[in-house]
Amino acid sequence: MDEQYTVARLVRELREQTGLTQEKFAARLGVTFPTVNRWENGRAKPSPLAMEKIETLLHSLGDRGEALRKVYFEKGK
Prior knowledge:
Elements (H helix, E strand, L loop, with lengths): L2 H16 L3 H8 L3 H8 L7 H13 L2 H11 L4
Helix pairs in contact: 1-3, 1-5, 2-3, 4-5
């Protein structure tokens, strides 16, 4: 599976798991709404700093976040 597509799906699933709109998700990560929109549509990838924040958010979700983290971060390992 294409890495950009995988990241796009992760961002969308994580945002949906948290129940946030793209705007509120963007604010939570310290980025803009268009940035999150580009991530979800596979037109851009999160920066390393944004990926750290995404992983932190995954950890805060407990088991639900751990399941998503395993799917997206441990596939290539």
